[in-house]
Amino acid sequence: MRHTIGRGILALGAMSTCLTALSGTASAAAPADDLCLRAQHQTAGLDTAAFQAAGGELSNVDYPDRASFEKSKPTERPLVTGSYTTYEDEGRTLPRQIRCKTKRSDHLQLVYGQQVAGPEEQCKVVNEATLQEVAASFTEAERAALVYPVSKVVVDRDVPAFTGWDWLWEFPAAYRGIGGRLHLPSRSLSVPWTWGALPESFRGQHYCTFIAPSYLKRLMLGQAVL
User: Fold this and answer.
1) Of the four, 77, 119, 124, 136, which is 20 to 30 A from 111 by CA?
2) Counting beta carbons within 10 angstroms of the beta carbon of residue 200, is it exposed (0 to 12), middle (13 to 18) or buried (19 or more)?
3) Number of structural domains found in the chain
4) What is this structure's pTM?
5) Integer CA distances (angstroms), 99 to 136, 153, 166, 195, in order
6) Interacting residues of 88 by C-beta distance below 8 A, sequence separation 6+
7) Is residue 226 part of a domain?
8) CA 184 → CA 20, 96, 155, 157, 161, distances in Å?
9) DSSP assignment, residue 188?
């Protein structure tokens, strides 16, 4: 399913949408759409105004199965990301982990101009923002009942993958570490556009695995298992 937000989505707007979903209010976008569109902004340092001025449009395709997601590639014009969600339950109602395929800033700068994107960031910046938005969504009563308060949650550095197959392997959405802290890892496959020895279809990509915001909230409240 393809989901588009205007001619480019503000990162803060995407975070606001995720917060609305976390608070229990229906969202027009699927959680994967919200997260992967935000990831594209945050990992590439996308400047919305410059991107729009250059004629940029941003959307996400949420793939229903792993096979179709494996074959997919993000595209630069129009800028289209891809997502695939795994779930805690067989009924596919409780998202656990979301994989996103996005474009790197160096390729976007080549296509739209140097001003549209900044230095490439690790996937971890997206998990950091997810932690912030989840923390902001708690009620006073929920905050008092937290099993994992923010002070006991650690966002890990990215674990690099070296092939697409390697990146797609099972990877923990979260784990309990030393001192009982909750760790949020991410697996990353980042291929600069400048790696000219590779075919163009493989270059300028940044793939990330993220914890689903709703799963993080349930973990912090003690309502989900690792």
Assistant:
1) 124
2) exposed
3) 1
4) 0.88
5) 23, 21, 13, 23
6) 94, 95, 96, 215, 224
7) no
8) 22, 12, 5, 9, 17
9) E
pLDDT at position 112 is 98
Task: Say what the pLDDT of residue 8 is.
Answer: 35
Q: Which of 207, 21, 214, 18 is nearest to 99 (CA)?
A: 207
Is there a domain that residue 192 lies in? Answer: yes
Residues of the chain with pLDDT under 70: 1-30
Residues 64 and 222: their CA atoms lie apart, in Å, by 28
Residue-range definition of the domain harbouring residue 132: 2-220
The pLDDT of residue 188 = 98
Task: Give residue for tokens 């932690």.
Answer: 131
User: In terms of Cα–Cα distance, which of 127, 119, 188 is closest to 158?
Assistant: 188
Determine the straight-line distance between the first and last CA of the chain, rounded to whole angstroms: 29
pLDDT at 30: 66
Give domain status of residue 24, yes or no. yes
Distance CA 106, CA 152 (A): 35
Residue 121 is assigned to a structural domain of this protein? yes
**So what's the pLDDT on residue 197?**
87
- The mean of the pLDDT values for the chain is 89
Strand 58-62 to strand 153-160: parallel, antiparallel, or no bridges (unpaired)?
unpaired
Measured CA distances, 222 to 52, 146, 154, 215, 219 (Å)? 42, 7, 16, 10, 5
Antiparallel, parallel or unpaired: β 58-62 and 79-87: parallel
